[in-house]
Amino acid sequence: MVIGKPTFVPVQDFEMGFEKIVKIAHSLGVCKQQKIREKLKAERRQLVQGMDQYLKVITSLPGIDNHDANALCQAIGSVQAIAKTSKEQILESTDLSTDKAEIISRFFRDPSFYSSPKVN
Q1: In 21-36, which positions are buried (b, 16+ CB within 10 angstroms) versus exposed (e)?
Q2: Computed from CA positions of residues 27, 33, 34, 35, in that sequence, does the dihedral angle turn out positive or negative?
Q3: Which structural domains are found in the chain, ordered by start?
Q4: Which residues of 55-80 are buried (b: 16+ CB within 10 A; e: fewer)?
Q5: Contact of 58 with 69, CB cutoff 8 Å
Q6: What whole-number distance in Å separates Cα of residue 65 and Cα of residue 3?
Q7: What is the DSSP letter of 64?
Q8: In angstroms, what CA-CA distances link 44 with 69, 73, 78, 82?
């Protein structure tokens, strides 16, 4: 099979030719479906890995757990958006406590807060 040149399939009669055309079209369609499925699977893997990374980053903040990270993701979105969001906006859009909202806003704005050693 050469790209740009039609493929000729020798057949004995018209019915056999029609059957061959249908089989070729079906096999090409199956190949395209498999490629689409593979692309969708790869996209899903990327999204899941992205969410795992997101959870790792957000739960690394002191006092923030998975529930809080999911609430932030649904209400605000990306880590960059969370970094730009004020304490009041976090309180309005999520069910986080004022202490947690304060920790999040201070973490992204106050270098002395995130660079100081944490003792639990």
Answers
A1: eeeeeeeeeeeeeeee
A2: positive
A3: 19-115 (1.10.150.20)
A4: beebbebeebeeebbbbbbebbeeee
A5: yes
A6: 55
A7: -
A8: 20, 17, 18, 24
In sequence order, the 6+-apart residues with CB closer than 8 A to the CB of 113 are 106, 107
Smallest CA-to-CA distance from 61 within 53, 69, 51 is with: 69
Give the pLDDT band of residue 99 (cuts 50, 70, 90).
very high
Residue type, 103: I
pLDDT (tens digit per residue) in 15-51: 777 787 788 777 777 767 777 778 878 888 877 777 8
Q: Which tens digit of pLDDT belongs to each residue from 100-113?
A: 999 888 888 877 76
**Helical ranges in the chain per DSSP H:** 14-59, 66-75, 79-84, 87-93, 98-109, 111-115
At 38, which amino acid appears?
E
